[in-house]
Amino acid sequence: MSTELQSFIQKYDLLGCIQCGKCTGGCPVTVRTNLNVRRIVYDTLDQDMLDELAKLPEIWDCTACNTCTVRCPKGLKPAEILIGLRNILVESGEIQPTVRDALESVFLEGNPWDKPRATRSDWMQDLEVKIVEPGEKVKNLIFVCCTIAYDPRVQAIAQSFVKVLNKAGVDYGFMGNKETCCSSEVHNLGEEGLFEMEIEDNTELLNSYDAERIVAISPHCYDAFKNQYPDLKAEVIHYTQLLKELLEENKLEITGELPQKIVYHDPCFLGKQNDVFDEPRYILNHIPEAEIVEFERNRERSLCCEGGGGRMWAETESLGERLAEVRVRDAKELGVSLLAVACPFCILTLDDAIKAKGFEEEMRVVDILEIIVDLI
Questions:
Q1: Are 27 and 59 in contact (CB under 8 A)?
Q2: What is the pTM of this model?
Q3: Do domains 99-247 and 252-372 have the same CATH topology?
Q4: Are the C-beta atoms of residues 174 and 202 closer than 8 Å to each other?
Q5: Fewer CB within 10 Å: N-end or C-end of the chain?
Q6: Among the listed residues 238, 224, 232, the one whose alpha carbon sits nearest the alpha carbon of residue 310
Q7: Angle 78-92/3-12 helices, nearest 10 degrees?
Q8: In angstroms, rounded to a whole number, what is the distance separating the alpha carbons of residues 307 and 346?
Q9: Which sequence spans correspond to the domains of the chain?
Q10: Checking phi first, is residue 299 left (phi over 0); if not, alpha (psi -120 to 50) or beta?
Q11: 224 and 184 in contact (C-beta within 8 Å)?
Q12: pLDDT at position 4, please?
């Protein structure tokens, strides 16, 4: 057995796999792709197969949604094995141009969208935003997320959050252009060297602030900081946890009525990855006159939108109806007018799905912050 294979087996505890198939059986993308997680895990035990497996196009179908990990009776993390195979490909340089460009952009500009670092805070224009400097004491240090900072469709999430924070009198601060990519998706794309470098740089930056908590707007940033940054000094929370706290302490009150039917979609990186299920529902249930309903597949069974796992930048050979389209079709059958989420990736994928299905006149996908900002 080669040193490379032995290291791979030990890192992912491959010998602990009992080949029960629950990973493949539970994987949401297997219904429309050739991805067979169980088979790939088994084949990685063969040295002659390792490099060949890394070249399989279906390893890029994985969205890192964590369903396989939730269902694994041995406590293994099958998705991480697929990411490990991606790492082999990244190290060989044989990656898609879109993946290469995203990784290069993170290295050069601190974001995967090929946008200038100096324009990261342009979304703040005309807003009363509190910017804090390293060493400055602040209770809540807000981390925006690259996608929210640069994508016009989801910039409204951060803009709404600023208005909510100001309304509630929260002690907060943003980092402005000092903020850089959390690199959650760098990890998911398989660039472990860059990810480790970003962890080191971000840890130094975030720890330079005298902050009690880091409040991540995106579940992807929240998951990365909470689970993959071992040396952060501050507690890491998601914005829905902060809003629930503000509502409980009567520092924020939702007074405006919204007589609409709303369904909440659990983002994988918030729900399955971190068990944050109740806080978003707590907020929505405080909206006067709103009727809150549930998907049949909710909470840890929530259907992935396919936005995670680096899928924003990786082309796949998937077949059939996209999962986001299935999700909006389910929402239509519930008769909702608002599809509420708490993740920028979910907004982008579900918004595209609504357009693809021609449901624009029947429903909208909105972040929870976008809903409540006009009701407080």
A1: no
A2: 0.94
A3: yes
A4: no
A5: N
A6: 224
A7: 150
A8: 6
A9: 3-92, 99-247, 252-372
A10: left
A11: yes
A12: 74
Q: What are phi and psi of 205, to 5 degrees?
A: -65, -50
What residue spans of the chain are helical by DSSP H? Answer: 3-12, 22-26, 37-43, 47-54, 67-71, 78-92, 97-109, 146-150, 155-168, 184-188, 192-207, 219-228, 239-248, 278-284, 323-334, 344-357, 368-372
**Calpha distance 158→162 (Å, rounded):** 6
Cβ–Cβ under 8 Å, residues 363 and 328: yes
Q: How many angstroms separate the CA atoms of 269 and 182, rounded?
A: 14
CATH for the stretch 3-92: 1.10.1060.10
Ramachandran bin of 9, using left for φ above 0, alpha for ψ from -120 to 50, beta for the remaining angles: alpha
Which amino acid, 152?
Answer: P
Which CATH code, of 3.40.50, 2.40.50, 2.30.29, 3.30.450, is assigned to 99-247? 3.40.50
Residue 34, pLDDT score: 83
Note the CATH number of domain 252-372. Answer: 3.40.50
User: CA-CA distances (angstroms) from residue 134 to 105, 205, 239?
Assistant: 25, 8, 22
Q: Which residues of 81-101 are buried (b: 16+ CB within 10 A; e: fewer)?
A: bbbbbbbbbbeeeebbeebbe
- CB within 8 Å of 282: residues ≥ 6 apart: 244, 247
In this structure, which amino acid lies at residue 29? V
Phi, psi at 364, each rounded to 5°: -130, 150
335 Ramachandran zone, left/alpha/beta (phi>0; psi -120 to 50): left
Residue 338 tokens read as 């608002």
Query: Residues 82, 59: contact at Cβ < 8 Å?
Result: yes
3-state DSSP assignment of residue 234: coil
What is d(CA 148, CA 234) in angstroms, rounded to the nearest whole number? Answer: 22
Distance CA(49)–CA(40), nearest Å, equals 9
Per-residue CA distances from 360 to 110, 138, 208, 351, 363 (Å): 34, 41, 45, 9, 6
Average pLDDT for runs of 10 along the chain of length 376 = 78 89 90 86 79 86 92 91 92 91 97 97 96 96 98 97 98 97 96 97 98 98 97 98 98 97 98 97 98 96 93 80 94 97 97 96 97 96
